[in-house]
Amino acid sequence: MNRKAIAGIVLTTALVVPIAGVSATSVNAAPSKSSKPSSAKRNLQAKVAVEDMKSPHRLGSVAHSKWYAKQYMQVRYGWGASQYRSLVKLWTKESGWSHKSHNSSSGAHGIPQSLPGSKMASHGKDWRTNPETQIRWGLSYIDGRYGSPNAAWGHFTSRNWY
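^ thats the sequence. predicted structure below, dont judge the formating
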């Protein structure tokens, strides 16, 4: 079975089957009025689903970061190959996919070059050192501000920032 099929099964399972040890109230303080899970719950479900996939690469390597971003964006946002290509171009220009990247003049930090870097704390206390936390935050930022990596890349190519 190919990775796309596995990711689809994992996503379907993550959205239908409750995660062991995680209740709706532990993710959401108040029950949702709509049938759609909250953003925090979808983030957690996607994180757990990707963790279950077991990366073939060492954590902290560029290969692992690219693999993780591809899996997470497919599971969490449903973005495919063309979106991934734009993301790779964007974060290659921004940080070279280095989770240790830091711009001393602006204070931007990490793979997505969060400004300030501390914004990434919303996705984990380990934002300074964990590329997965940085990637989850960066994809959330792109989704919220631009709607997709293609749109973020388009903005970057016209203005040299995103």
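Confidence is low (pLDDT under 50) at residues 10-32.
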